[in-house]
Amino acid sequence: MTPILSIRNLTVALPKGGDRAFAVEDVSLDLHRGEILCVVGASGSGKSILSAAVMGALPGRLAIAGGEIRLGETLLTGLPDAALRRIRGNRIAMIPQEPIAALNPAMTVSRQIEEVFELHSDLARPVRRARARDLLEAMHLPDIDRVAASYPHQLSGGQCQRIAIAMGLAMHPDVLIADEPTTALDATTQAQILKLIRELKATGEHGVLFITHDFGVVRDIADRIAVMEAGRIVEVGEAARVLAAPQHPYTRALLAAVPRLEARAVRPAAEAVLTAKGLTKSYGAKLALDGVDISLERGTTLAIVGESGSGKSTLARLLVRIAEPTGGSIDVGGANFLASRGSALRRSRRQIQMIFQDPFGALNPRRTAGDIIARAATLGGIHRAEAKARALELLALVGLPADAYDRRPAAFSGGQRQRIGIARALAMAPQILICDESVSALDVLVQAQVLELLADLQARLGIAILFITHDLRTAGAIADRIAVMQHGRIVEQGDAPAILSTPAHDYTRALVAAIPGLSATERALGPSIRPALPPLPR
Amino acid sequence: MRVAAWLGRRIGLLLLTMLAVSFLVHLALEVNVDAVAVKVLGQFSTPDQRAAWLRENGYDAPFLLRYLRWLGHFASGDWGRSTYYQEDIVKLILPRLAASALLAGAALLVMVPLSLALGIASGVRAGSLTDRGVSLFAILTTSVPDFAMAAFLTAIFVLGLGWLPGVSTMAGGFSLRELVLPVMVLVLASTGYLARMTRASMIEVMGQPYIRTALLKGASPSRIVFRHALRNALLTPVTVIMLQIPWILSGVIIVEVFFAYRGFGTLLYQAALNSDVYLVEACAMISVVAVVASQLLADIAYAALDPRLRGK
Amino acid sequence: MKRPPALVIGVAIVALWLLVAVFAPVIAPHDPLVSFKPLLRPGAAAFPLGTDLLGRDILSRLIWGARPVIFLSLAATLIAYIIGVGAGLLAGYRRGVLDAGFSFIANVILSFPVLVLYLVVIVALGPSYLNVVIAVTFGSAPAVFRIVRAIAIDIAGRDYIAAAVTQGEPTWRILLIEILPNAAPALAVDFCLRLGYSAIIIGSLGFLGLGLPPPAPDWGGMVTDGRALAFAFPHLVIFPCIAISSLVLALSLIADGLREARQ
Question: What is the pLDDT along chain A (538 residues), one digit of tens a residue?
Fold first, then answer.
C-alpha cells in the first residue's frame, strides 16, 4: 500500500547562533490511511517543527533545508503558497494543542467551522451551516444548537477541542496532524478525546500523525511509534515492538521514566505535623473549597489528586497562607497556624514551604540563585555571615554546581530552576513541603529526576510532603496516602495502594480508568461508536 | 444581563467621579472667598465693597453649603454670569462649544481612519520598511508640542508656500480653508500615538494561536488580517482613542489660541487669563463631562466588540 | 547588550541640553534680558540667531530658556514618580480598599483634560515656578500611579512573590526588592516619555503666558512674544520651537531605545 504521507530526508534549518544547526534533521517517515503514527519526544526535540513543516507553515525564520514531503502524489515541498492554502484545512488538517486559545474569541463556533467550507468548497451558506451542525453532532457534543451559537470562552477545553477536531474533519482530510492535542486537558477529558481520535482512525479514511511527549498516551493509541531526539528520529517501528523491546537507549530512558501505576510501600504512621479541619474558601458566591479535612504525618507523603478546578491549588495556597480560608482550622506542629498574625506569622511561616508549578515564574529573574537561597536561609534563622555557606551546601544537596550561586534564573533550564526552588524552600529548614504540580511543567526525564530528588531529601531530612498533582501515576509513585478532590471536596482518601487498586468512589474509578496507557481504559469507557461524519462536499 | 450590571456600575462610578471633580473645582476656586471677591470686583475695589458683595452673594454661608447651592444651580442650567464678558455663561459657552466640536470632530474624522490604517499596515508586518517608517513618523510627531507643530506648519504652508491662511478667526463666516491648519495640527499630534497603539495590538493578536489556526485552515493572508485579526486587534485602539479625548481637548485649547479660533478653548483661556472664576468653573466642568462621556463610550464600544464580556 | 542608535542619539541630545541648562551663565554670549539692536536677522555678527523685538539676543534667551523647561519638568516628574511609585506599588500589591481609594483619586484627577487641570490650578494658586511644578506633579502622579499599579498587580501574581510571602519577607522588602526591580525597565521607558511630556506642558503653559513669570526667558513664552511678527521675522518663533521639539524628541528616542534594548 502506498503511504498517504511520505517524508523523505527532511531537514529544517534553525537560524544561526542557536544551540543546534537543525530543528529537524534527515527525517524520513511514512503515514498510511487508517493508521496512527505517534511522534514522541521531549520539548525541543523538533516534533512540533516537523508537523509545521508538513503543513507548509513553518514559523518565521525557519526554512526547509533539504528533503521532500509528499501528500499522495503531490509534492508539498516547494509548492507555492496559494497551492498550499488549497491543501491546508482541506487535505491536511491540524488539531491544536490549546483548544480554547486556538479558536477565534470573537467568532461563534459555527462560523469558524463554516469558514472551512467557505474556503474549500462552493457550498451555499445554509448548507455550510447545516454541515457545521452535523459535524458538531458527530463529535458527540451535547446541546448542539447552543454550542453552535457559542463563543469559545463559553465552552470547556474539551468541548473546544471537539470543535477544533470537527473543523479539521470538515473536508475529510487525508492526513490529520494532532500536536499534543490532549496536553492542556484534564485526564477524563483526555481519555474521551483519545477515544474520539481512535474512532476516527477506525473509519480508515485518515492517517493520523500524533505528536506527543506522553508514553501513556502513545501506549493507548499508537499503531507505529517514531521517537525523536534533538531533531533526529532515533527509533521507529510497530508500537507493540517499540514498547515491549525498545532498541535505542533514549527510547529505553523515556520508557523507564514513565511512572508505573503501582504504589510504593506505605511507611508506618507517625505523629501528624499538619492537620486541616473543615477548610472552606469561597470567592463571592463561588465555593472553591468545601470542608476539606487532611492530616499529614512526619516523614510521609500525602498526594492530593484532582482535575483543574477541583480546588487543589486553592488548598495549597490556604495551607501556606498566601490566601486566607473562609472557615476551618489549620494546625502546624500542634499550634494553631491561623491564629498567628504579623511578625509572629512571618516567623512561623518557615515551618511550611512551597515548591511551585512553573519553574519560570517561581524565581525572581533579577536576583541570583545564591542570593535567593541565602536570603531564605537568613529568614530561616541562620546568621547572615553563614548564609552563603549554607546556600552553597544546599546547591550541592539539590545537585547543582557551586558556580550556580552567581547566576540568574535565565541561565538555568526548567529542571535546574525547580532544583533552585527546592533549595530555597529547604533553606528555611521546614517540616513540611507543599509541592503544587511541581513536576508537571517538566519533561518526563527531568520529572523523574526531580521526583527522585524529593524522595531522597525526604528520606534524609524526614520532611513531610503534600504533593498536589493531576496525575495519579505520579501520585502513586511517591505517595503513602492519596486524597482525591472533586468540586472543592475530598471524595475519597486512604493508603495509596488501596486507592489505586480498589477505588471506592465513582469519580476515583473514572480517574483511574482515564489514566492513559492502561488496558483498563478501553473497558471502562465501553464500546466505541463510529462517528457518522457528513458526506464529502465535493 | 451581566453587561447591563457592569455598565450600571461604570455609570455610577463615573457620576461619582464627576461629583468629586465638581467639588475639587469649587474647592480650588472658591474656598478663599476674599480672593473670589478680588477676582470678581477687581484689584482696585475697597475692602468695604468686597465685604458687601460677599454678603449679598451668600458668601457668608459655610463652604459646604455654598458648594451644594452652586452644584444645584449648575445642574439646573444656571451657570452664572461671566465677570469678564459680562454675559450669561450658558449663552456664551454654547456657540463656542459647537465651534470646538466641529474642530475636534473634523480632527477625529481624519485621525481615526489614518491611524488605524497606519497601525494595521505596520503591525501586520513588524520590522518591515513600512513599519519602520510609521514608527519614525510616530516618534517625530508625538515629540513636537502642539504650539511648535502649529508654528512649523504655518512656516511651511502660510509663509513658505502661501497656500493657507495663518489665522482661523472665521471673520467672514465659516471657511474650510481656515479649518485646515488647526485640524492638521490636531491630527499630527495624536495620529502617531494611536498608530503605535494599533500596531502593538495588531502584533499581539497576530501572535495568537487562533491566527495560526486560521492559517492552517487555508485562509489567505488578507483574510487572516481582516476576518480574524482585525476585530480582536481593534479592541485596544478603540479604547485608546476614547481615552485620548482629554489629550485632544488640551490640544484644542493650544490650537485655538494659536490660530485665534473662536471656540471653547479660547474662551477658557481668556477666562483663565482674566481670573473669570465662574467661567473657569463652568468650562472645567464642561470639559470633564466631555471626558467622562468619552470614557463611557469607550466602555460601551469595548462591550460591543468583545464577546468575552458577555459572560458564560 | 547592544546599544540601539536611537538611544545613543537621544542621550547625546539630552546631555547637550542638560549641559546648556546647567552652564547657561557661562555659555550664553549675552545677558538674555539686555536690549541691543531690535529685530536683527539670524547670521548677524555677535547675534548668530538674531535679536527679538526688544533687541535681546535670541541665542542667549534660548540657552537661558532651557533652564525652566528642563529643571521644572525634571522636578515635577521626579516628585510625581516618588508619589506615583509609592502609591502604585502599595495599591497594586495590597489591593482592597486602599487600592480602590487611590484609584478613585487618580481617576478623578485624570478626568480633567491636562491643560484644563493646569489652568484651574494656576488660576487658583496664581502663576509661579513652584505652582507650575505643583500643577504638573498633580497631573502626572496619577498617571504614574496607574502604570505602576498595573505592573505591580501583574508581578504580585507571580509565584516568586508568593514564595517571598511564604518565607515571611516583610512587605517593604517585597515591594522594593521583589517587585520594583522587575518593574524598573518599563518605568525607565515611561520616565523618559513623561519627562518629555512635562516639558511639552511647561512649554505650552509658557506659550499661553501662564505660569512662568516674565521677563525671564522660556521657550514657550518666546514663541508667543514672536508670533505677532512671525510673518516678517519667522526666526523669532522657529528657533524656540526647534529647541523644545529637539529636547522632547531626544527623550522619546531614549524611551524607544530603552524599549528596544529590553526586547
Answer: 789 999 999 999 988 777 788 889 999 999 999 999 999 988 888 888 999 999 988 887 788 999 999 998 899 988 898 999 999 999 999 999 888 999 999 899 999 999 999 999 999 999 999 999 999 988 888 888 999 999 998 898 889 998 999 999 889 899 999 998 888 888 888 888 888 888 888 888 889 999 998 888 898 899 999 999 989 999 999 999 999 999 999 999 988 888 777 767 778 778 899 999 999 999 888 888 999 999 999 999 999 999 888 899 999 999 999 989 999 999 998 889 998 888 888 888 989 999 998 888 999 999 999 999 999 999 988 898 899 999 999 999 998 999 999 999 999 988 899 999 999 999 999 999 999 988 888 888 888 888 988 998 898 888 999 999 998 888 988 899 999 999 999 999 999 888 988 899 999 999 988 888 765 444 344 334 444 566 655 4
**CATH architecture label of B89-310:** Orthogonal Bundle (1.10)
Q: How far is CA B294 from CA A59, A457, B289, B297, in A?
A: 40, 60, 9, 5
* The one-letter amino acid at A452: E
Asked if B194 and B142 count as a contact pair (C-beta separation under 8 A), the reply is: no
Q: For residue C136, which of C189, C78, C191 has the smallest C-alpha distance?
A: C78
Q: Among residues 86-115 of chain C, which lie with CB inside 8 Å of chain B?
A: 104, 107-108, 110-115
CATH superfamily to which A272-530 belongs: P-loop containing nucleotide triphosphate hydrolases (3.40.50.300)
CB proximity B218 to A under 8 Å: yes
To the question of domain A1-88+176-258 being in CATH 3.40.50.300, the answer is: yes
C-alpha to C-alpha distance for C150 and C144, rounded to whole angstroms: 10
Beta pairing partners, A482: A303, A494
Minimal CA separation from A498 to chain B, in Å = 39
Separation between Cα atoms, residue A198 and residue A178, nearest integer Å: 12
- What span, in angstroms and rounded, lies between the C-alpha atoms of B282 and A173? 68
CA angle A58, A62, A64 (to 5 degrees): 80
Residues 178-237 of C with CB under 8 A from A: 178, 181-182
Same fold flag, A1-88+176-258 and A272-530:
yes
Q: Does any CB of chain A come closer than 8 Å to the CB of residue B9? A: no
Neighbours of chain C (3+ CB pairs under 8 A): A, B
**Interface residue of C114, C120, C236 to substitute, partner B, most B CBs within 10 Å:** C120
Nearest Cα neighbor of A321 from A294, A355, A348, A290 is: A348
**Cell digits of residue A504:** 471506592
Residues A33, A201: Cα–Cα separation, whole Å: 8
CA distance B141 to B149: 8
Q: What is the pTM of this model?
A: 0.86
Q: How far is B209 from chain A, CA to nearest CA, in Å?
A: 5
Q: Name the residue with cell 469607550.
A: B298
Torsion of CA A270, A274, A275, A281, to 10 degrees: -150
Task: Give the separation between CA B25 and CA B130, rounded to whole angstroms.
Answer: 46
Question: How many whole angstroms from its chain centre is CA B8?
Answer: 24
How far off is chain B from A51, nearest CA to CA, in Å? 11
Q: Are A41 and A444 in contact (CB under 8 A)?
A: no
- Which of A353, A361, A380 is facing C158, going by the closest CB pair? A361
**Which among B3, B128, B203, B213 is the top mutation candidate for probing chain A, defined by the most A β-carbons within 10 Å of its own β-carbon?**
B213
Which C-chain residues 125-164 have CB contacts (< 8 A) with chain A?
A: 158-160, 162-164
**CATH code, domain carrying C191:** 1.10.3720.10
Q: How many CB pairs under 8 A join A and B?
A: 72
B63: which 3 cell numbers?
463652604
Determine whether the interchain pair B210/A116 forms a contact, defined as Cβ–Cβ distance below 8 Å: no
Inspect the interface and report whether the beta carbons of B220 and A89 lie closer than 8 Å.
Answer: no
